[in-house]
Amino acid sequence: MNRSHAFTQGGAREQRGFTMLEILITLFLLTMWLLSSAGVQSSSLQFTKAAQLRTQAVYLATELSERMQANPAAAVAGSYQYSGGTSIGKDCTSATCLSDELAAFDLAEWNARVTAVLPNATVNVTTAGAANPITYTIVVSWSDRRTDRTYSTTGTDEAFSYTATKTLFQPPT
Q1: Ranges assigned E (strand) in 42-121
Q2: Looking at residue 50, what is its pLDDT?
Q3: Partners of residue 125 on adjacent β-strands
Q4: % of the chain exceeding 90 in pLDDT
Q5: Reported pTM
Q6: Is residue 14 in a domain?
Q7: For a designed S-S bond to 169, which of 32, 94, 133, 157 qualifies (C-beta 3.0 to 4.6 A apart)?
Q8: Is 95 helix (H, G, I), strand (E, B) or coil?
């Protein structure tokens, strides 16, 4: 009887150390899982922001297409060509404008919206041909600032662009 009592005490000593090792391994695994979950959430937030910027670019290009369609005389005449630098000549929200003045107002207002929404935005609107129908190519470019990743030797910004085309017909008079 004395002998089995000694065996039980020896077995209990071995189990006590093994339990501590199990707890340390479990804590290590939980820590790794929590750190990886935080990394996934961080990447998810970055991708959500990039998707939001793409959606805004699509929305803005569509907005300019609709402005062209609302002013077909100036659009078919090529008045919506743009490569930057247009200032608002006449405020068409409070005064009556001719179609060319409305086109200049639309481009200036649209460019202000693009630069306010997209980081480091540039826009370019060109035409293919100068006849009825006329096709415009709208290019909206921006950069996504990711300071923790280097995609090129020139910096940490990744460049994106969205290209849309719009074909307009002069309505019969």
Answers
A1: none
A2: 82
A3: 82, 138
A4: 25
A5: 0.69
A6: yes
A7: 133
A8: coil
User: How far apart are the C-alpha atoms of 102 and 108, rounded to whole Å?
Assistant: 10
Domain count, the chain: 1
For residue 61, being part of any structural domain is answered with yes
In degrees, rounded to 5, the angle at the alpha carbon of residue 24 between the alpha carbons of residues 22 and 26 is: 70
Residue corresponding to tokens 């309505």: 171
Residue 172 has a pLDDT of 66
- Is the residue at 173 inside a domain? no
What CA–CA distance (Å, rounded) separates 1 from 23? 34
Q: Where in the sequence is the domain holding 91, given as residue range(s)?
A: 2-168
Query: pLDDT digit string (tens) for 44-91?
Result: 877 788 888 899 999 999 999 999 999 888 888 888 888 877 666 778
Geometric angle at alpha carbon 125, from 162 and 91, rounded to 5°: 115
* Cβ(86)–Cβ(109) below 8 Å: no
Q: Going by C-beta distance under 8 Å and a sequence separation of 6 or more, which residues neighbour residue 147?
A: 156
Distance CA 4, CA 100 (A): 104
